[in-house]
Structures are given as C-alpha cells and as structure tokens.
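Reopening this ticket.

The earlier resolution said the output was attached, but the attachment link was broken on my side. Pasting everything inline this time so it's all in one place.
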Amino acid sequence: MRGIAAGFLAFLIVVSVGMPLKAGERYIDFSKEGFRMELPEQWVRVPQDVFQEKMKSLKQAYEQDGSQKRLGYDYALQLQSREWFSYPYMLISIWEDIHVDTEDMSQMNHKIEKSLLQGGNETKLVSSSFDPERHYYRAEARFRIAGEQLVLLKGVYYRNHSVLQLSTYMTQEMYSRYAQKIRKAMGSLKMDPSTRHRAQADSWLDFRDLIPYLKVIIATVLVFLIAGIYVWKQRRGKEE
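Inline output:
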C-alpha cells in the first residue's frame, strides 16, 4: 500500500476568477481544474483581489481564536450580495499530486473529521457520509468564530491525482433556507474523464513493491548457479 501525504489535515476555502454567472446559467465551468458544478441561481465568483484581502483577515481571525488551521485555497463563490464574502459563501481547495487508494479513503475521511474537531472554535461534527461510487465524502459541522455561530457544509472528492474540497459557510439562521440547495450544488460536480479516480497500477508493476521478491529471485538464481558450478566441477573431476 502506497504512503499518503500526511500533511493533509486542515481544509477550508478558496480563490476566484471574478466573473459573475449569466442570468439563468446553471453551471460554472472550472475547465483548468477539470470539473464543472451546477450552482443555485444568483451565485457568482468572488474577484481575486477581494479574495486575497479576505484570506488575510480570515487568517488573523483564526489566529486570534487560537486555531491552528492553515489557509490554502483556490476559488471562492457566493450568493450575489452587496458585499463580498457575505454568508453564504463556498470555498474551493484543490490539493494536487495526491492519490488516495480506494482502500485508504475511509481512513482519510477519519483524518478529515479529526482535523475539523481539532480546529478549535467549539467545533462539533453533526453528520458525515461517504459515497464510494463517486469517491465523495460529505460532512456537516457547527463552530463559533468571532462570537458568531456558523455552519460548515464540507464535500471532498477524491480524484485521480488530486483531492478537491468544497467548504460552504453560513450562519445558523440561514441553514433552513440555503442548506438543501447548497448540498445539491456540492454534489453536482461533473469531472473530466482524465481527473476521475482510478485505481493505481497493480502493485507488481511498482518496482518498490518488487524489491522483496527480487531478493528471493536473486538468492534462488545464486543457489542454482552455485549448484551448477558444483555439478560441473564434479563431472569434470570424474572425466579427468
């Protein structure tokens, strides 16, 4: 079983390309990242300069509350509003060059839950589930930041060479109004065929896995070689 990068604990949020959706448009395309997502109406991307400023202030807020979470995000989306990063908003993070084998996903899901609970801010895990056919993990958590009670809806897609994470934040008061549509959007991702999770090549194709067997093979060859030399010498001695 191949090792999986362990520095894979804190997950949260994202960047954006600053471009609103057209009226009536249902899907937003992340062609560079190999997926597209169906969004609720009136959701838009957050401009990148606004996103960067928000990341700075968010990092400071976590540090003041004693959280150890790292910020590493790629895109941000939100419900259209007069102010950027008004709740609810969705943060997207893509961790590249990571392949989680199917048999390791359950363990990784537990690590994600553990990282959520270790984040401080009175975090409580409300529910979690995993869809093995889509390699899609979902979780819901409650936490408090800057004195406000918030809800986190988290989705994690295990892809072939990356892990894609969606984190949607809203206030407790917004939950009944927006949660169902947001869950639908997070579960609507369409992956490009090249990004979909596939099992790694069989272990016998991996040279590292062959090493223990190569030692046996080499030892066996040496035994036969030594035996062959011994028999050849014995025959030669008889002939002489």
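Reporter confirms the inline version is readable. DSSP finds four helices and ten strands in the chain. The CA atoms of residues 11 and 197 lie 20 Å apart.
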